[in-house]
Amino acid sequence: MKRRNKYKYIIGVDEVGRGPLAGPVAIGVVKLKVKSLKVKTKWGHGFKDSKKLSPRAREAWFLKIEKAQSEGWLEHAVAFVSASVIDKKGLSHAIQIAITRALKKVDPVPAFNLRLSTFDLRQRRVLLDGGLRAPAQYEHQKTIIKGDEKELAIALASIVAKVTRDARMVKLSKKFPAYGFEKHKGYGTHAHYAAIKKHGIIPHHRKSFLKNIKI
């Protein structure tokens, strides 16, 4: 913790939806005030790997995150990039777009105002999961393998991304009930492949992921 004393904010970044056949990729961002985090160290007590949480547990944590935001010591946001952009620009490019958009929602000034002082930029520590990278303006950033298991800020970002994307897929399922999005959230289950072969591809499918599928 001593190493982080110079930072005013810790920002966690994680991605959800890299592998599905349908739906957007999502980037979740959580911005924590360091002073408040020191006071509220017990707030995250007992937290475990977000990917191992049940849907009900994720929803409970999401409500807890929403409450922290209402208290003013945490901010969170999710940005989506659609299947069509993934097909046109590639998944890596789409993820980078989503990272920039999500960061802009919770931290608009440092990433996009080049007149901001170097001191202000250095007050932010960005922690990212896996192979993710923040915009170059964030001088103090670190990519951490399995970061959602090691850093609370990344784990919280994973939760907001997962819960929000799942909700979007459930909403999409009401428009396209034949595909079962409310169950598999766009991932390549046997039922999803069967639905694609029977009903065809819709605009929310990633055509670049389905090149070998015979419709």
Describe the structure using short key phrases.
10 helices; alpha/beta; Nucleotidyltransferase, domain 5
In a nutshell, what does this entry contain?
The chain is an alpha/beta fold.
Topology (SSEs and partners):
Elements: E1 9-16, E2 25-33, H1 34-39, H2 55-71, E3 74-81, H3 83-89, H4 91-106, H5 108-112, H6 118-122, E4 124-129, E5 141-144, H7 147-150, H8 152-175, H9 181-184, H10 190-199
Parallel strand pairs: 1-4, 4-5
Antiparallel strand pairs: 1-2, 2-3
Helix pairs in contact: 2-8, 3-4
Model description:
By secondary structure, the protein is an alpha/beta fold. It has helices at residues 34-39, 55-71, 83-89, 91-106, 108-112, 118-122, 147-150, 152-175, 181-184, 190-199, and strands at 9-16, 25-33, 74-81, 124-129, 141-144. The protein has a single domain, classed as 2-Layer Sandwich (Nucleotidyltransferase, domain 5), CATH 3.30.420. Helices cover 46% and strands 16% of the residues. The protein has a five-stranded mixed beta sheet. A hairpin with an 8-residue loop joins strand 1 (9-16) and strand 2. Helix 2 (55-71) packs across helix 8 (152-175).
What series of H and E elements makes up the topology? EEHHEHHHHEEHHHH
Q: Point out poorly predicted stretches.
A: none
Gap between N and C termini: 55 Å
Measured on Cα atoms, how large is the radius of gyration? 18 Å
Task: Give the strand content.
Answer: 15-25%
Q: In percent, how helical is the residue content?
A: 40-55%
How can the largest sheet be summarized?
5 strands, mixed
Q: CATH superfamily, called what?
A: Ribonuclease H-like superfamily/Ribonuclease H
Instruction: Tell me the total number of β-strands.
Output: 5
CATH fold-level assignment: Nucleotidyltransferase, domain 5
CATH architecture: 2-Layer Sandwich
At the first level of CATH, the class is: Alpha Beta
- Give average pLDDT, whole number: 89
